[in-house]
Design goal:
- The protein contains 11 helices and 9 strands.
- With about 280 residues, it is of the alpha/beta class.
- The protein has 2 domains: about 200 residues, 2-enoyl-CoA Hydratase, Chain A, domain 1; about 45 residues, Lyase 2-enoyl-coa Hydratase, Chain  A, domain 2, CATH 1.10.12.
- The strands form 2 sheets. Strands 1-2-3-4-6-9 form a 6-stranded mixed sheet, with helices on both faces. The protein has a 3-stranded mixed sheet with strand order 5-7-8.
- A hairpin with a 5-residue loop joins β1 and β2.
C-alpha cells in the first residue's frame, strides 16, 4: 500500500476513513465522525471487521495504528443508529449483531500486525473495546475510558471484555469497571497497565507513529509470532506453552532475519529486517 489516500482494494469505507503512510509499513485507521465523537454504526462495525481481515493479508503492512478524529477516540455504538434499532430486532437478528461485533475483536486479535490504539478524549462502550483489543495503547491525559454497558441495561460481557480486560488490568479492577460502567481516567489507566503511556494531545500522533515505526523496523515476522503466542497461551498450561514457544522460536531461528541480526551484531551495525 503505497498511496496513503487509497482505501484497501475491495473496501469502500463510509463511516470512517483509513490511510497508510507513504512507505506502506504503517497503516492508520481513523474513526472519522468527529461531530458525534466518532460513534460506530452497523456499517462501520462491519467495515472495521473487514479492514482488519484484509490487513491480515497485507504483507507490506507491519504495524497498524487505530485512532479517532477531532479530539476523541470513539463514543461507542451510535445511540440513534444502533441502540434504537436493536430494541426492535428479533432474537435471531440480535444474535447476528452481537456475533458480528465479536468478529471485529477476533479480526483484530487475528491480525498479525501489532495494533497501537492512540486514544484522545472519549473511549466509551465499543470504543473502549477497540482500545482494549489493540496490542498497545497510548493515551492523552484527557482520555476517559468507560465500559458502560451496564448503563444501558446490558452485561459487561460484551465483545470479549470479560476475557480480555482481566488479562490487562487484573480481575478485581476489571470487575469494578464492568459492573459499574464508570470512567477510568488516563492516569488510572496507565497505573493499572491499560495504557502504556500518557502523552500530550499535541504529541499523540507523533509519539504513536514513532512507536509504530520502531516496531515496523523490528523483526516483524517475529512480532507476528509473538502476538499469536500471546493469544494461544492464554488457555494452555505451562508445559504446553513451553512446547509451543520452543517450536515457534526454532522456526524463527531458521529465518534470514535471525541470521541478519547475528551478522549485524558481529559487524556492530543495526540489523535491517526483511520479514523472511
Amino acid at each position: 500500500m503505497t498511496d496513503s489516500r487509497k482505501p484497501m482494494a475491495g473496501l469502500t469505507p463510509t463511516h470512517f476513513a483509513w490511510s497508510a503512510t507513504s512507505d506502506g509499513r504503517v497503516a492508520t485507521i481513523t474513526l472519522n465522525r468527529p461531530d458525534r465523537k466518532n460513534p460506530l454504526t452497523f456499517e462501520s462495525y462491519a467495515e472495521l471487521r473487514d479492514t482488519f481481515r484484509a490487513l491480515a493479508r497485507a504483507s507490506d503492512v507491519r504495524v497498524v495504528i487505530l485512532t479517532g478524529a477531532g479530539g476523541n477516540f470513539c463514543s461507542g455504538g451510535d445511540v440513534h443508529e444502533i441502540i434504537g434499532p436493536l430494541t426492535r430486532m428479533t432474537s435471531s437478528k440480535l444474535l447476528e449483531f452481537t456475533r458480528m461485533t465479536g468478529a471485529l475483536v477476533q479480526a483484530m486479535r487475528d491480525c498479525p500486525q501489532p495494533i497501537i490504539a492512540a486514544v484522545d478524549g472519549v473511549a466509551a462502550g465499543a470504543g473502549a473495546i477497540l482500545a482494549m483489543a489493540s496490542d498497545l495503547r497510548i493515551a492523552t491525559a484527557r482520555a476517559t475510558t468507560a465500559f458502560l454497558f451496564t448503563r444501558v441495561g446490558l452485561a459487561g460481557c460484551d465483545m470479549g471484555a470479560c476475557a480480555l480486560l482481566p488479562r490487562i488490568i487484573g480481575l478485581g479492577r476489571a470487575s469494578e469497571l464492568l459492573y459499574t460502567g464508570r470512567s477510568m481516567s488516563a492516569e488510572e489507566g496507565e497505573r493499572w497497565g491499560f495504557y502504556n503511556a500518557i502523552v500530550s494531545p499535541e504529541s499523540l500522533a507523533e509519539e504513536t507513529m514513532q512507536r509504530a515505526r520502531a516496531l515496523a523496523d523490528g523483526p516483524y515476522a517475529a512480532h507476528a509470532v509473538t502476538k499469536r503466542m500471546l493469544q494461544l497461551e492464554w488457555n494452555v498450561g505451562l508445559e504446553e506453552a513451553l512446547e509451543l514457544e520452543a517450536k515457534a522460536q526454532a522456526r524463527l531461528m531458521e529465518t534470514q532475519d535471525f541470521h541478519r541480526a547475528y551478522e549485524a551484531f558481529v559487524a556492530k551495525r543495526r540489523p535491517v529486517f526483511e520479514g523472511n
